[in-house]
């Protein structure tokens, strides 16, 4: 819940602050002795923001980068109390926490609440039609995705939230396996961790899927609850000790290839803010998206090298598995589109990708050819 502090350090709730402002505005007509409210009006608003990440995860650092930009742009008028997963609500419960006003802002991914409505996963872990993460984030802002997200959360589900997406995540690794895998047949029967629609996808490919927060993955692997897993990226995986329980790391998969961070805001809080402060919260998402991207590229690549140096074998996900994933996505789409809203979202995404990715693929030179020209042999793992 958003709070402010007066000059004595006591917390002042947003509703109390607004009430007092109304009273003082009326009193000003009768008296000029209103110095105290002027001091109070300059006190910072303190917003409570929780993530879905452990305190040690790189994504908690990336959430802090958002906090720093908001506070700097607001000139100190906004302060954000950033908390890790579990501080107020569970990692998978931040949507409810924001909607109920228990927290003001959350930093998460939409796949974490797809159990409420499978359409949530379409905004991060849905079918891959050919658009990369930057393309799908562009769909959110320019292709109608943001309005469809609002329709889902506010109109269809009655949630008291405003949501935005930021940071186009690199395609997620297929993950960590104790032994090498070469085909779709090799993964059948494996107990595997993932989230969102990817859980349904891989279940349909013969895996037994568990959905777990990041902090629970390695303990589950150690206990034999799961045989293999993915989380998201080399930095997060290395920090929670993935390399201690498996040595085969498969990069480049279609199960979650176009995800972004989800920034959730309590709608009541946003609608009572001054317009400039609301703009700072919203445009701060766009600003930190650029910085997060650069920060991730630097850290993910250097941490991947550290994993290789520590004895982890890095593989590309086999083509047989990628082809099986695309076939499974095609099969799933028919079932998903029985829901009219899901069909509406998927139609929008297909229209966007068909037009925009045609341009991208026709215009994009072969960067692999250039890389191999200047760094011959590097890709021969």
Characteristic key phrases:
seven-stranded mixed beta sheet, 13 strands, 14 helices, D-Maltodextrin-Binding Protein, domain 2, alpha/beta, 2 domains, six-stranded mixed beta sheet, 381 residues, single chain, globular
What can you see in these coordinates?
- The chain is 47% helix and 15% strand.
- It has 381 residues and is of the alpha/beta class.
- It folds into 2 domains: 3-168 and 259-298, Bacterial extracellular solute-binding protein, family 7 (D-Maltodextrin-Binding Protein, domain 2, 3-Layer(aba) Sandwich), CATH 3.40.190; 175-258 and 310-354, D-Maltodextrin-Binding Protein, domain 2.
- The strands form 2 sheets. Strands 1, 2, 3, 4, 5, 6 and 12 form a 7-stranded mixed sheet that branches. A 6-stranded mixed sheet has the order 9-8-10-7-11-13, with helices on one face.
- Helix 7 (197-204) crosses helix 12.
- The longest helix is centred in the C-terminal third of the chain and has 35 residues, at 275-309.
- The radius of gyration is 23 Å and the shape is globular.
